[in-house]
Amino acid sequence: MKELIIIGAGPAGMAASIYAVRAGLDTLVLEKISPGGQVMLTYEIENYPGFIEPVEGWQLASNMEQQARRLGVTIESKDVVSVEKYDEIFHVKTTDGAFLEGRAVIAATGASLKRLGVPGESEFTGRGVSYCATCDAAFFKDRVTAVVGGGNTALEEALYLTRFASKVYIIHRRDEFRGQKILQDRVLSNPKIEPIFDTLVTQVNGDEKVYSITLQNKKTGESRELAIQGLFIFIGNTSNTTYLPEQVLNDSGEVKVDMKMQTLMSGLFAAGDLRENSLRQVLMAAADGATAAISAYEYITHKDW
Ligand code: NAP
To answer: Which residue has a Cα nearest atom 39 of ligand 1?
Structure first.
């Protein structure tokens, strides 16, 4: 039996683990694939304090993991399918049929990128359709590309794509971007970027690879085809919470927490992008993780077991 089981090894899980081991808790971190989380998909981060120059996403993730391991954190590769509580003890079941026991659990499994859900999207994923410019932009050197979305991710990834692509359209369903002003200014002043507002992507077209997308203007209803070779989709996230008890989730599948990151089930905490009202920033995820670990420590040490 562990005192604390942390599920997820992104910034929230890593920060929680660092605080937990430093508080002397017997802690285990479970991670489905490999430590890092969504920050691994980000090229550069320039709003995480402590780095004078922008830090690359993989580097920040790697630093967090190395720091946690140095402090004695154990990270095991396991995919969690459910978390249940029996007689005050949590049973964390994994896909290999095993279950681990813990006195407290911190859920820190983040969020996954949303899909557009249009014809051709799944068919051409990996053949022109991508959800990660940092991973795939280099394949589109001197090619014409399009980004879908109007949030910070779409704007940042569009800017990154301009290092390789000859042209980057940004297709957004409204007439103004949602992302930060500093990013909007950079995007709108970049000669390689052309915004297309009030427009939806309704189909991805291709043979072996993508050759065009079908666009529909929301105001006029008119459709047209736009020739591109790469389509990068950044339209937000959904929380990774299917393994958690329904009673701790809201209608959107996000975890409801109080200021201490305590969910509606005592001893079960949540930290990072999966929680309700998360600002979905690396810094916030790390701060949530620290808060959750301190709360878990208080819960474990004050409870009469
Ligand atoms: P987001 O802020 O939720 O933006 C999603 C964008 O996609 C919105 O512009 C939205 O349009 C559009 N969209 C959603 N569903 C769509 C659909 N079905 N078809 C077409 N467009 C659709 O998501 P995000 O940009 O991934 O950012 C997620 C969070 O991470 C945010 O809180 C963001 O601030 C944060 N983040 C921060 C940074 C940073 O600080 N540098 C970097 C990356 C991400 P509408 O605007 O019309 O809703």
So the answer is: 152
> For position 89, what pLDDT does the model report?
98
Rounded CA separation 228/212 (Å): 5
**How far is C-alpha 284 from the geometric centre of its chain's CA atoms?**
12
C-beta of residue 146 within 8 angstroms of C-beta of residue 213: yes
* The token pair that represents 61 in the structure block: 């993730």
| Atom 23 in ligand 1: residue holding the nearest Cα | 236
Q: Structure pTM?
A: 0.85
Q: In this structure, which amino acid lies at residue 75? A: I
Contacts of 121 (CB under 8 A, 6+ apart): 115, 129, 204, 233
Cβ pair 299, 20 in contact under 8 A: no
Residue 161 token pair: 């794509």
Q: Note whether 11 and 285 are within 8 A (CB).
A: yes
Question: How many A from CA of 188 to the centre of ligand 1?
Answer: 17
Q: How far apart are CA 19 and CA 63, in angstroms?
A: 15
**Spatial contact of 105 and 88, defined as CB atoms under 8 Å apart:** no
Residue 141 CA to residue 163 CA, distance in Å, equals 8
CA distance 115 to 124: 13
User: pLDDT for 71-120, tens place per residue?
Assistant: 999 999 999 999 999 999 999 999 999 999 999 999 999 999 999 999 99
Integer Cα distance of 44 and 156 in angstroms: 9
Round to whole Å and give the CA distance between 272 and 239. 10
Tokens matching residue 286: 């790390």
Q: Where are the beta strands (DSSP E) in the chain?
A: 2-7, 27-31, 44-45, 55-56, 74-77, 80-86, 89-94, 99-107, 111-113, 129-130, 144-148, 167-171, 193-196, 199-206, 210-217, 223-227, 230-233, 237-239, 268-270
- Token pair 């109080």 is found at 258
Q: Which amino acid is at 158?
A: A
For the question of residue 288 being annotated catalytic, the response is no
Query: Cβ(167) to ligand 1 under 6 A?
Result: no
